[in-house]
Amino acid sequence: MRPIPTAADLGEILKRTIKGANLTQEETATLTGIPRSTLLRKMHGGTFNFEELSKISQVTGKKLSSIVSEAEALADKENARR
Question: What is the pTM of this model?
Answer without folding.
Answer: 0.91
